[in-house]
Design a protein that fits this description.
- The chain has strands at 2-6, 10-17, 25-31, 34-40, 46-50, 64-66, 69-71, 78-80, 86-87, 96-101, 106-112.
- It is an all-beta fold.
- The protein has a single domain (12-112), classed as Rieske Iron-sulfur Protein (3-layer Sandwich), CATH 2.102.10.
- The strands form 2 sheets. A 7-stranded antiparallel sheet has the order 1-2-11-10-5-4-3, with no helix packed on it. Strands 6-7-8-9 form a 4-stranded antiparallel sheet, with no helix packed on it.
- The structure holds FE2/S2 (inorganic) cluster (FES).
- The site of FE2/S2 (inorganic) cluster has 8 residues, from loops.
- FE2/S2 (inorganic) cluster binds at residues 53, 55-56, 58, 72, 74-75, 77.
- Keywords: 2Fe-2S, Iron, Iron-sulfur, Metal-binding.
Length: 114
Amino acid sequence: MQYEQAQSMSVVYNLGLATRVPLGEGRTFTVGERTVAVFRTRSGALLATQAECPHQRGPLADGLLGGNVLVCPLHGYKFDIKTGLAVGHACGSLKTYTVELSDREEILLRVEDS
Ligand code: FES
């Protein structure tokens, strides 16, 4: 993992080539002191959320992804990983992160300092 750029209140991490995350799946990355789940939808969009489910800390990167809706692998709660909002339950929302593709097809994840 490479430290790419620092600005006033955020850090951009280069997580490597986008192919590290297969289409329609997620992978967990550690950036600084936090873990983040990065997803690539079947259409190729990159999205990122907190790594653990707010219900009972299920590993969200292992969930089933259909469009932007992720199903947690432990108990099936659904989340819109683009907005972070819970879908059909009141368990709470996910923290989302800004993620984009570089000119070299690398995943660039922005993490706000907090
Ligand atoms: S841990 Fe995710 S739904 Fe229970």
